[in-house]
Write a structure and sequence with these properties.
The complex is a heterodimer. Chain A is mostly helical. In chain A, 72% of the residues lie in helices and 1% in strands.
Chain lengths: 559, 356
Amino acid sequence: MRALGVHMSPSARIDRRRVARGLLLAVPLAFLGVFFVYPVGSIIGRGLTPGGTLDLSPLGAVVTDPHLRDVAWFTIWQATVSTALTVLVALPGAYVFARYEFRGKRLVRAAVLVPFVLPTVVVGSAFLALLGEGGPLGFLGLDQSVAAILLAHVFFNYAVVVLIVGGLWSHLDPRQEDAARVLGAGRWQTFRAVTLPALRPAIAAAAAIVFLFTFTSFGVILILGGPGYSTLETEIYRQTVQFLDLPQAAALSIVQLAAVVAVLLVAGRAQGRRAQALRLRASAETSRRPRTAGERAMVGVNLGLMAVLLGGPIAVLVQRSFDTAGGYSFGFYRALSELRRTSTVFVPPIEAVRNSVVFASIATVIALVIGGLAAFAIAGPGRGVGPPRGLDTLLLLPLGVSAVTIGFGFLIALDRPPFDLRGSPALIPIAHALVAAPFVARVMIPVLRSIDERLREAAALLGAPPGRVWREIDLPIVARAMLVAAGFAFAISLGEFGATIFIARPDYPTLPVVIFRLLGQPGPLNFGAAMAASVILMAVTAAAIFAIERFRFADIGEF
Amino acid sequence: MRRLLVLTLAVSIFATVVAAAGPVAATASAPTGSSGTTITLMTHDSFNVSKSVMRQFTKETGVKVDVLPSGDAGAAVNQAILTKSNPLGDVFFGVDNTLLSRALDEGLFIPYRSPQLDHISKDLQLDPRNRVSPVDTGDVCLNFDRKYFEKKKLSAPNTLDDLTKPQYKGLLVVENPATSSPGLAFLLATVAKFGPDGWRAYWEKLRNNDVKVVDGWEQAYNTEFSGSAGKGNYPLVVSYASSPPAEVVNAHPAPSQPPTGALLNTCFRQIEFVGIMKGTAHEKAAKKLVDFMLSDRFQRDMPLQMYVFPARDGTKLPTAFVKFAKVAPTPFALPPDEIARNRDQWIDEWTNTVVR
């Protein structure tokens, strides 16, 4: 049994792998088919067939409307600039995390994910406290501007680049860079010729994700940009949720989909099909304490940047959660378990935490299974026999389609057995996993691709059956990426990303739901309690990510 | 390798345990034990009622109510329309007079004349066929920050026209009518006041007087308005006549006077309705819920739960409402079918006038 793989003819082996791969891929494809393609197809289909016959005229109208062309252009422009800025600002941070040890590193790494989960309306109020007239940065005049949109996008997505790129970077063998330096290359030259090519797949993956998040960003545009800015996403929201103009919404959704596919395919091409096989090291071997003054400055400057960019708005929220009428106290935290105690909407804070954690755990498991299977099918052993080119890119599509389109699609598509999910609590983690699973796949694929195929072949030649090869070669290397992915999946669900915020859902209040409800009512106690609930959400996030980070298993130095 | 197995096991066990323990639902009614029916009340996110009140309903009728919050009022109505062939609920609460005609034209509701309607003013009963019944009213009015105007020795504006005067330049923040229901109500107030041909010129003047437009009520009131918690920069905001009492009730320690006031000559009255959804399998139970929502027990509970005024005549108001909540004597109004016909176009024209 053991040596079976070795004795088979090459073509039989490839056939077997094809079948195995197909089976691996079937699960994620079925999931995306039922919970993404079918609902989105249904709602767009309904929009294009008013009165039962196909009518493509709204699509023509959208394409030729000069205002909507501006909107489409602005959407792509702001997403591109936001992505470039985020990568530029976060790349040095990724370097610092990958190469240096410093006190509190794990805590900081957990903390950078905190902005990711915060509701935009909460962050908006913190930004306004800093950027608005009268705020410490009010003189910059950034309130309701493109700059505010870009800044907020960097704030929310910093962690995506730092953690994804930093994850791969920490496994790169620094001796290759040392060799280049010894051979006379300068720092910049070394970075460009040695480090950057090795990091390219991870940077491309992170950039693609940031691009999609900012491309479909909704709250940031409306709240920080103000009414003067609209994107395809905010237009789809208006046409769907407010006007219920399904033909117009369908036309806009098709334009959005087309733009996303085009950008993803171009990016996929630029990224290069074959990531180079890398010589990977255990991350513990590649980082050390900063030694020279320059290195210390590098670490210091980046930590300082994180403290200002990410810490500033967070500090405002924390300060406000304690700033009660009678001085600093826990009054707002107490109010969380007292306000409207006798009402049906009341939920003790601990139950809201529990609901959030339950949904996030389930969503994470679903996302890891679905995203993980897809990643292994696409970039696992024997990639020569892989599925069609571009599939890995298209897996990201759920991140690039409006949450409104998906949510309203759920309403009309998933309304009959066997998928009668309307009003079912299962809807919540599934909707979150729909965002998280592509994310997981995208984080794992570049790392899997970087594994030297010869390692696997060597293991197989030595008699390891495929399962063992997977366990001994792939898994240890990809484990770190999986943890990063799990952390993001958890955070995506904690922050209630995706379709659930726009649609009717059963009343299982999570922390973000509690925050929205408190903000929906006037009075300083409600506002303060909303700030307190936001701080609790941040604490839960940091604690969960910290716990996930603690699992460091079989690091790759061990083989 | 072993640690990986341990992790996988730990995660699976954790997930199983939490899944078994299950998320905790906020139930609207107590478990009955009786063999009563359960009906779903589809509504907007602001719906709220005392637990004891719903418990009493379940006790009296044996009917249990599941609440399905579905976004803001506009989003909830549109979801109901989208799913009308296979409705999400049995009863719908929260369609208001700005959305009413659309909901009725789409045939969302079946007629039911509740005996309780005898206690409700005819002025509020906008549908002669009783497909919907009025439950509450709320006046969308400008709110002002008392402290600001006292400190500046400036009198607060009195009318919509006042807002275009130079002394009020840069003081007003409003919500975008395309994304906010009070924002839309305020736009409708200006249409009612200045007419279908005059309102754009008025907004032109507001724009020249540096009106600030933001996305939603939460941002306008909590962040931009100077009179409430966020300590923003704008002493005038579009909110509700019931916001001042909320500033007293939801503060600790409670002030003797609200720090804000409503300007009663700037108001548009929103009327919220309840209706039985076409396609319900529980028409009898749904009727009971409609009766209950119009009854004194439910109506008395509403003001402090949702900050609205009861539709039922003679309902006793809570002290905070008696003391601090004013009702606009002659609010602006527009017929629902006129709103339905022009709403989207007005919003588009408003956008072109004010933000482009």
